[in-house]
Design goal:
The chain is an alpha/beta fold. The protein is built from 14 helices and 20 strands. The strands form six sheets. Strands 15-18-19-14-13-20 form a six-stranded mixed sheet, with helices on both faces. Strand 6 and strand 7 form a beta hairpin. It is globular. It binds ligand TXE.
């Protein structure tokens, strides 16, 4: 930990949010709230409405009505593009505010959240163009008497369940495209990081999105998320989160109306380094790949596979880079790694560090938990002598922990890379394009 926490930047009072229904922020039926604490500063930052099944039903009814009335899907692509472009401009206008609340709820560095929010505005701009170009196909090869036309139509009401690791980014990787297509939305953010989803709903209304097209229900997964997955008036679920809950989403859809599903689940991603690579560049890439978002990232590069003859040299280079990573106050613009977002995730990461040692791997860099008066911080950790049977090689840790395993041939590297239950991302460092 290279900095002390600066409490002068935390909010002086807690910001309260309701649920978002029919174009307005409203209290939930229960009138109850949960308080979210900053995982870096341990102080309360937001109060989030605890929605229940009744609130989900209201939000779905609102999204259903606005879809069936065609207040949005009936507009031309150009009209939809206008709203998305205005939303992009408003996101840019409110970038600092969004980044600030995102950092407070997630514990991730403010430089990163600013970058993410700017990228989100860009996605709205991109999607606005797409809404103008949605087109279908025609078939004039069916004989003289027949002519076939395939049109692309909006699916309907989309339930959007998002996690805590990239609350605004994952939301904006989906919302502008769902809207560009003419669908309506009920979003369910993670109970830990709901603020910026509610801010986006406000922005969309200000940008001219008709009421009822974007609704947000906040609360826990087993209550609100499950109710959304089981609701027959929802036509599609887009879910990003754990593999275990992803299975639940499939079952809930199968037991009701066979919703269309988009699932983005876990990963255990290899970074393979060959001896002909520029090892300095590769070490930068590998360090970034494991430290970005404190490793709380589905595409985190958490398995280092390295050609045996450069393994010693490369791991030393990697450790040198990791020694320079600035872990600390996420509100400080120079911080590169902030806090661990949830208590449960902190416990998971620390338990895998213990497991790695118990299974016989050698922790050759880092100490794991960084003991501080406030917040929960874990520094980068390197495990060497890692065998593919060990849990730190196999399981998604979702923290800044990398396991190092050597290989002798390209075939062996490919075999090790593919030796996983997950299949999300992979990187290769080599100058040999063959
Ligand atoms: O995820 P959950 P958690 C992985 C990562 C992490 C683990 C646990 O390995 O350690 O998951 O994280 C909602 N029906 N990823 O427990 O529970 C929940 O409220 C419907 C990978 O936070 O899957 C939240 O909005 N929804 C991942 C969302 O699902 C339910 C990102 C994700 O929470 C629900 C996050 C239910 N029954 C974690 N139960 C990635 N791919 O990036 C919970 N939810």
């Amino acid at each position: 930990m290279q900095q002390t926490l600066d409490f002068s930047n935390v909010p002086s009072s807690v910001r309260q949010f309701g649920i978002y229904l029919d174009g307005e922020m409203k209290p939930s039926q229960s009138g109850k709230f949960t308080v979210r604490y900053s995982p870096a500063h341990d102080c309360p930052v937001t109060e989030i409405a605890c929605a229940g099944i009744d609130d989900v039903d209201l939000a779905v009814a609102s999204a259903r009505k606005s879809f069936d009335n065609k207040v949005w899907s009936g507009k031309s692509g150009a009209e939809r593009a206008g709203v998305l472009l205005k939303a992009a401009a408003l996101i840019r206008e409110r970038q600092s505010e969004i980044a600030y609340w995102e950092t407070l709820e997630t514990g991730k560095p403010i430089s990163q959240t600013n970058g993410e929010v700017s990228g989100c505005a860009d996605m709205f701009e991109y999607a606005s163009g797409l809404s103008r170009t949605i087109n279908g196909e025609s078939y004039n090869n069916l004989g003289e008497q027949l002519f076939g036309v395939v049109t692309r139509e909006p699916v309907g009401v989309v339930g959007l369940i998002t996690p805590w690791n990239f609350p605004f980014l994952i939301l904006c990787e989906r919302v502008p495209y769902i809207l560009a297509a003419g669908c309506t939305i009920v979003a369910k953010p993670s109970e830990y990081t709901s603020a910026t989803t509610l801010i986006l709903a406000e922005i969309l209304t200000s940008a001219g999105l008709p009421n009822g097209v974007m609704n947000v229900v906040t609360g826990t997964g087993p209550v609100v998320g499950q109710a959304l997955c089981e609701n027959r008036n929802v036509d599609m679920i887009s879910f990003t989160g754990s593999t275990a809950v992803g299975k639940n989403v499939i079952c809930a859809s199968g037991e009701t109306n066979f919703k269309k599903l988009g699932l983005e689940l876990g990963g255990k991603n290899p970074q393979s380094v060959f001896s002909d690579a520029n090892l300095h560049d590769a070490a930068d890439g590998v360090a970034f790949g494991m430290c970005f978002n404190t490793g709380q990232c589905c595409v985190s590069g958490s398995r280092l596979l390295v050609e045996r003859d450069v393994m010693g040299k490369f791991t030393e280079l990697l450790k040198e880079k990791l020694g320079k990573v600035i872990v600390g106050d996420p509100l400080n613009p120079s911080t590169q790694m902030g806090a661990i977002t949830t208590d449960a995730q902190n416990t998971t990461i620390l338990s895998y560090i213990e497991k790695g040692e118990a299974e016989g791997a050698v922790m050759s860099f880092g100490c794991g938990e960084i003991k501080t008066k406030n917040g929960q911080f874990v520094g980068p950790v390197v495990f060497e002598n890692v065998h593919p049977s060990m849990s730190i090689f196999r399981d998604e840790i979702f923290g800044p922990v990398i396991s190092v395993t050597p290989f002798d041939t390209a075939e062996e590297a490919i075999m090790l890379a593919n030796d996983t239950d997950y299949g999300l991302s992979a990187s290769v460092w080599s100058k040999n394009v063959d």
